[in-house]
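Example 3.
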Amino acid sequence: MIELNNPVIAKLSKVVGLSDGDNHIFNELCKTTILVNSRRDIISDGSRQNGVYLLLDGWACRYKTLKDGKRQIIAILIPGDFCNLHVGIYDQMDHAVGAITATTLAYVDRVQFDALTQSRLAVMRALRWTALVDESLSRSWLVSLGVRNARERLAHLVCELRERSSNIGLVKNNHFPMPLTQNDLGDSLGLTPVHINRVVRALAVEQLLKIERGTVSIINLIELRKIAEFDNNIFHQSLVY
Amino acid sequence: MIELNNPVIAKLSKVVGLSDGDNHIFNELCKTTILVNSRRDIISDGSRQNGVYLLLDGWACRYKTLKDGKRQIIAILIPGDFCNLHVGIYDQMDHAVGAITATTLAYVDRVQFDALTQSRLAVMRALRWTALVDESLSRSWLVSLGVRNARERLAHLVCELRERSSNIGLVKNNHFPMPLTQNDLGDSLGLTPVHINRVVRALAVEQLLKIERGTVSIINLIELRKIAEFDNNIFHQSLVY
DNA sequence: CGTACGGTTGAATTGGTTCAATCGGGGTGG
DNA sequence: CCACCCCGATTGAACCAATTCAACCGTACG
């Protein structure tokens, strides 16, 4: 059971006002935890799910694989992200969720999940908000894959991951952990690992960022955001209510 | 005011059980209609919205434009699709919605929308379902842009549009209206209109499909689905409840 | 009857892939 | 403690799918 430093609370309270009572709900959700080894599926494609998984520690990704083995990563999941919030409307997965590093997850049965979350309006809204932000990120990935070149795509992804890591307190002095391999980056950005390598090197030479031993060092954020045409509005950190 | 052949009802009742009372709600939503000319924005990027738009007639698209003018279409909207279901959680658009043809839209103020839809559980679930299917489609677009070649992308898009058109009763003898220009197709699939042209021609020569004067004729659906690795599960037509 | 827009085609170019080889470091077994 | 191994990163060279540039066609429409 995790009570302190719950990453969901960190992430959500940044934008949505949460009372102690709301926080209590999120801590209740994290009572049962599960460990998954790195490079294993947390939820496999096509499976039917009866509960909600919430990532508490480690990195994961949503992905789909084609018959010929080509894999497209659809989203990167970091602590505080839900793996399958749609449970309850439909249950069959249209994609897989895989652990990138070893991960710790909270698991809550669907019925219990609904009972807990529906008891508080702020919690329901917070969940709806995260789901909508995920959609927004998905749209920005589409733009990257559709109209940005390799350099711009990588810059955009790094800006996104930096911002999200920052929201859960994982950015220190412009460094943050980023356990994706160049192969993972390729599968995320629709590029080959070979080309990812060349772009990473080029960005390092240009003194924009460095990636080494699983950590990213941002050297020139301003310029990176310019290259990526990065717009913070995709995170929707100003709300209506 | 539109009462008969409401496309939202056609689309939703295909999967979600809707009573007469539920249908009544959807018809209420369509009381106020708005016309938008072709190639005009229905909702512009960055704008703040206070009501929900529902496409009743014509085609539209979600899109984002980069500073250099490159446009990425994020989703195609056909009758029965909502333009901005997220209103109420956040209001500022992170993308635009543009009319492709002349369109008829229903407009409902946010407060009224919530009042109407929240009165019936089936309606709320149906709305949540469409939102989740939209997300699923967005994921399948991401896969297309990431790992499919031009031929596969086009085949996939055509299969998707055929299925969705079919759900609102617009497919007749393997023909359906499809008012996207080759430029629109390019902006949807992350390809140039020139290359779209070549691929369209090639698929016609191979007796797979024909596109002429705004209608698609599917000649060999089986083969098209094979090329695209098209999986009907992305529509989530089997539900939990 | 001109004009504008969408579709069509050819030729040259290019961003990214493919294939192949090498490097380097962390973990493991003897 | 060291040799080995494996995985991920790195680099070069040849290749190709899609782009770019440019011209031309057909037709709908004011």
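The helical segments of chain A are 7-13, 20-29, 110-117, 121-147, 150-167, 182-189, 193-205, 221-228. Residues 149-150, 191-192, 194-195, 198 of chain A lie near DNA strand C (CB under 10 Å from a C1').
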